[in-house]
C-alpha cells in the first residue's frame, strides 16, 4: 500500500512542480538562491519524502556557507537518493546522466531547474557539459554530482569517474564530500518498492581546489574517495571494496577531444 501511495505522490508532485518550472523557464524567471526553481525543487523532494514516509536527517549543514558555491560529491545507491540529497544540502543544481533527459516531461522539467546532462558515451560531449556546469558554479550555483556514475547495490563506495573533479578544479570551488545512508532500506536499487525509513545525510569537511590544475584531478578524486570511505566505515561499518590499482598521476594538458574520463 505504501508503494502504491508513494508512486501516486511522485506522479502528482512531478506533474505539478514540473509544470511550474517549465512555465517559469519559458517566462525567463530568474534562477539562483531562493528562486522559484529552488523552492519548487525542494517542495517536490519534500512531497516525495512524505509520500514514502522517508525521514531525512542532515548532518554538518551548519559548517557549510550556503551563499558560497560548492560541488557536492555524493554516493549513489537508490532512486531515493535524489529527493534525499535535495533535502540534505543547503543549495543545489545537478549533473545527471543523459538518459534522464529522455524521460518524458521529467527530463524537460529537470533541465528547466538547471540540471546539466552528461553523455557518458561521448567523452568530448561530456567534457563540454562539465564546462557548462563549471560556468554555472562560477556564477554562484552549487551542483550535486554522483561520481560513481550509476547506482550501486550496497553502500560500499565504488571507483569514481574523474569528470566531477575536473569540474570542481575548473570552477575553482571547494568540494563537499557527502555520504548518505538509509536509502537502500527505503528503496533498494533495481526496485520501486518503498519501505518507510530514515535517511542520514552527512556533509563532510570541505576540500579546497584552489591552485589545483587538470593534472591534479586523480589525486583530488582519491582524496575525496578516501574521506567518504572513512566516513562510511566509521559511521556505519561499511567495508571498503577490494583495493584498486593506483590512479595514474598524469600532468597532461586538459583534453581537446576524448582524453577526459567523464
Describe the structure.
With 262 residues, the protein is α/β, with parallel strands linked by helices. It has a domain at 54-236: Glycerol-3-phosphate (1)-acyltransferase (3-Layer(aba) Sandwich), CATH 3.40.1130.10. The chain is built from 8 helices and 7 strands. The strands form 2 sheets. A 5-stranded mixed β-sheet has the order 1-7-6-2-5, sandwiched between helices. Strands 3-4 form a two-stranded parallel ribbon. Helix 1 crosses helix 4 and helix 6 (163-171) packs across helix 8 (217-236). The chain is globular, with a radius of gyration of 18 Å. The protein starts with a helix and ends in a 26-residue tail after the last helix. The relative contact order is 0.17. Mean pLDDT is 88; it is low at 247-262.
Can you give the mean pLDDT? 88
Q: Assign the CATH topology of one domain.
A: Glycerol-3-phosphate (1)-acyltransferase
Radius of gyration: 18 Å
Strand content: 5-15%
Write down the overall geometry: globular
State the CATH superfamily name of one domain: Glycerol-3-phosphate (1)-acyltransferase
Strand order of the largest sheet: 1-7-6-2-5
CATH classification, class level of one domain: Alpha Beta
- Report the count of strand segments: 7
Helix/strand order, N-terminal first: HHEEHEHEHEHEHEH
The share of residues in helices is 40-55%
SSE class: alpha/beta
The first-to-last residue Cα distance is 40 Å
- Count the DSSP helices: 8
Amino acid at each position: 500500500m505504501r508503494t502504491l501511495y508513494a508512486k501516486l505522490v511522485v506522479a502528482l508532485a512531478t506533474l505539478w512542480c514540473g509544470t511550474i518550472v517549465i512555465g517559469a523557464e519559458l517566462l525567463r524567471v530568474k534562477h539562483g538562491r531562493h528562486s522559484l526553481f529552488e523552492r519548487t525543487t525542494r517542495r517536490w523532494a519534500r512531497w516525495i519524502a512524505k509520500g514514502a514516509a522517508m525521514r531525512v536527517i542532515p548532518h554538518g549543514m551548519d559548517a557549510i556557507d550556503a551563499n558560497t558555491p560548492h560541488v557536492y560529491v555524493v554516493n549513489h545507491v537508490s532512486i531515493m537518493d535524489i529527493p534525499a540529497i535535495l533535502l540534505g544540502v543547503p543549495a543545489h543544481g545537478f549533473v545527471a546522466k543523459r538518459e534522464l533527459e529522455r524521460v518524458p516531461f521529467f527530463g524537460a522539467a529537470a533541465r528547466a531547474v538547471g540540471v546539466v546532462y552528461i553523455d557518458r558515451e561521448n567523452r568530448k560531449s561530456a567534457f563540454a557539459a562539465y564546462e557548462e556546469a563549471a560556468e554555472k558554479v562560477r556564477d554562484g550555483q552549487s551542483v550535486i554530482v554522483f561520481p560513481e556514475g550509476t547506482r550501486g547495490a550496497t553502500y560500499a563506495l565504488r571507483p569514481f569517474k574523474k569528470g566531477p573533479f575536473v569540474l570542481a578544479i575548473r570552477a575553482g570551488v571547494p568540494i563537499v564530500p557527502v555520504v548518505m545512508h538509509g536509502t537502500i532500506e527505503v528503496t533498494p536499487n533495481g526496485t520501486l518498492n518503498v519501505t518507510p525509513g530514515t535517511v542520514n545525510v552527512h556533509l563532510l569537511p570541505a576540500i579546497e581546489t584552489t591552485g589545483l590544475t587538470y593534472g591534479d584531478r586523480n589525486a583530488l578524486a582519491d582524496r575525496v574517495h578516501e574521506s567518504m570511505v572513512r566516513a562510511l566505515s566509521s559511521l556505519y561499518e561499511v567495508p571498503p571494496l577490494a583495493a584498486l590499482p593506483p590512479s595514474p598521476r598524469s600532468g597532461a594538458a586538459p583534453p581537446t577531444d576524448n582524453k577526459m574520463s567523464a
